[in-house]
Every structure is written in structure tokens, then in C-alpha cells.
Design goal:
It is built from 4 helices and 6 strands, in the order H-H-E-H-E-E-H-E-E-E. The protein is α+β, with helices and mostly antiparallel strands. The protein has a domain at about 70-145: Arc Repressor Mutant, subunit A (Orthogonal Bundle), CATH 1.10.10. The strands form 2 sheets. Strands 1-5-4-6 form a 4-stranded mixed beta sheet. Strands 2-3 form a two-stranded antiparallel sheet. Helix 2 crosses helix 4. The protein is elongated. The chain starts with a helix and ends with a strand.
């Protein structure tokens, strides 16, 4: 067997090979169209007088406009805000939720930042398949053309 292997290697031994000069045409790259990303203006937050994000919310909140609202009501209102403005920053919508519905639908997260309660977010996801969370910009916005309709979060 070893002789067979050695013989086959010898049969295919190549010594002097002449490589022809082949002219290669210039490659033309197709034009790729990248959709323009919207630039969202910075938001100037105007916290309500009772906000205290060092620990939590203070004990002297203003009376909400809609004290008997449910998580579904807050979610529907959030959708209206995004639909009307195309986007809304997380911090601002938390302030607005407190002003409209009271503090019971918000909390300070583990980093001390204002956040929306899970029951409100769950209700919001059910009624807003066309809205995504933009993690890098910390805002809710309408889904843009070309974005995966199955994803609810974008970078």
C-alpha cells in the first residue's frame, strides 16, 4: 500500500509550470442604497416638582388627571403620544404618565432612572406592533421601513 501511495504522488509531481498572464477587468461594485436614519432632536426634560430620582419618587405627588386609569388606559395613551409625534423619549413619557395618571404606573429602576411598570409595557406591546424601542436613543418610535417586523427593540 505504501508503494501505491508513493507511486501516485510521483505520478502527479509538477515541476515547471508556466502561468499565463490573464487580464482581469476592473470590478464594478453595485450601488447600495442605505436608508437615511431619522435624527431625533434632544429633549429638554422638565421634571415635575415631586420627582426625586436619587432614591425614588417623593411622597408629595400632584393629583393625577386620570386617577382611575388602568394599565391598558396608560398603554393606549402612550400609543397616542408616539403616533402623534412619531417618537417619545422614555424619561419624558414617564414624567408625562405621572402627570396624567399618577405614580402608580411608574417606578425608579435599579439604576435610579424613571421607568414604566411591566403591566403597562405588556399592554403597550399588545396594541403597538408598529412601535419599537430604540435602546441607543432611549426612545419609543414608529417602526421604519426595512426593520424586522418581528423585533420590538432596535439599537
Amino acid at each position: 500500500m505504501a508503494d501505491d501511495k508513493q507511486k501516485s504522488e510521483e505520478e502527479f509531481e509538477v515541476t515547471d509550470i508556466e502561468i499565463p498572464n490573464i487580464e482581469v477587468p476592473d470590478l464594478v461594485m453595485p450601488e447600495i442604497k442605505i436608508p437615511e436614519l431619522k435624527q431625533y432632536p434632544p429633549v429638554e426634560l422638565k421634571p415635575l416638582p415631586h420627582m426625586d430620582f436619587n432614591n425614588s419618587f417623593s411622597s408629595t405627588p400632584q393629583p393625577p388627571k386620570w386617577p382611575n386609569a388602568t394599565a391598558k388606559d396608560v398603554a393606549a395613551w402612550m400609543k397616542q403620544q408616539v403616533d402623534a409625534n412619531d417618537y417619545t423619549y422614555q424619561d419624558q413619557i414617564v414624567y408625562d404618565i405621572i402627570g396624567e395618571f399618577g405614580e402608580k404606573f411608574t417606578h425608579a429602576n435599579e439604576n435610579g432612572n424613571p421607568a414604566i411598570n411591566k403591566d403597562v409595557l405588556d399592554a403597550f406591546r399588545k396594541i403597538s406592533p408598529d412601535i419599537v424601542w430604540s435602546r441607543g436613543e432611549r426612545l419609543l418610535r414608529k417602526r421604519e421601513a426595512g426593520e424586522d417586523p418581528k423585533k420590538r427593540q432596535v439599537d
